[in-house]
Amino acid sequence: MYQSDDNLDLFGRLATAQGEFDRLYGLAIGGDAEAAKEMASVSSSLLDLRKETSTTSADYLDAFYGVDKKLKDVSGIADKQVSAADRQLAVLGSQLSVQEAQYGVLSAQLSALGSQNSTLASIDAQIAGLKGVLSGLDSAKGDYQSALDKVNEIKPNTGVYGSNYLTEYDLMAAKVASLNRGEYIDPNFGIPAGGWTIANARQAMLDTYGSVPEWYKNAGKIEGFAKGGLASGWGIAGEYGPELIDFSTPGRVYTAEQTRQILMPPAVGTDGSLVAEIAKLREQNKEMARELRIANARLEKMEKYAKETKDAIDNISVVGIPTFVEA
After folding, report:
1. What pLDDT, on a 0 to 100 scale, did the predictor assign at position 67?
2. Which terminus of the chain has fewer Cβ atoms in its 10 Å neighbourhood, N or C?
3. For residues 49 and 11, what is the distance between their CA atoms, to the nearest angstrom?
4. Do 243 and 236 touch, CB atoms closer than 8 A?
5. In the predicted model, what is the mean pLDDT of the chain?
6. Residues of 12-29 as b/e, b for ≥16 C-beta within 10 angstroms?
7. CA-CA distance, 218 to 99, in Å (whole number)?
8. Neighbours of 57 (CB within 10 A)
9. Which residue ranges of the chain lie beneath pLDDT 50?
10. What whole-number distance in Å separates Cα of residue 252 and Cα of residue 240?
11. Global pTM value
12. b or e along 100-121 (b: 16 or more beta carbons within 10 Å of the residue's beta carbon)?
């Protein structure tokens, strides 16, 4: 075939187009998506040049099928890349869904923790307040107990057999303690101080008086009043000097010094009436008894409030601090 200058230029462009197509093919097979896109336009120009330069239709078809095969190869590579990308996208989508769910859970937990922190702060404040109340109650109970002790020193009190003791056992225990201190020991029993028990003391009373009440009536109630106290009937107790005792009603044992003052002849121009003095003391006893009733009522209220507060704190210790979540 004769080749003019135009033909030479045509073959030159064909060589250039073929070289560019082959270059892009190599890149596209390697996974270059941009090269794969450019191959479509370059392949069209290449086939046009092949059509102009082919001497037979068979030459053109060979060139056409060669270009088509390479385009299909690149298309297959692209499809695989798209499929892989789709799979990766699906995986990323699943991961994103999981992360979003986790984020939702964490957000809910954070919100709950915020509410709990607020609630805990409120509960801590309440507990601190309760501790302050308990501290105040303890102080008040201490003050009350001190006052109660003072009232108990002078208040009328009648226990078993008219003594200051609520039970016979308490009375016997006090008597045994006195015997073991060496007080009022009858040597006929042969038991020294420190060797007395409730059992042998009771037996000694039964042997001598026939019963514990008879012992108290005849001996017990006039023993051990040197420091004053309450009993019943009139009598004289004199461990440390004569002591006048008013036992006609639940009354007071006067110390030796008080007894001496009461029995002392009145000074000239003064009213030294024993009856008036006793009446005055009884009025004082009544007033102290009234104060005792008031103090007991206050103590009952304080004990009630203290128990309720203690129960509330014990409940928190057992079941824990309640969690409040707003609806």
Report:
1. 93
2. C
3. 8
4. yes
5. 78
6. ebbeebbebbeebbebbe
7. 95
8. 10
9. 1-5, 151, 155-156, 224-233, 268
10. 17
11. 0.29
12. eeeeeeeeeeeeeeeeeeebee
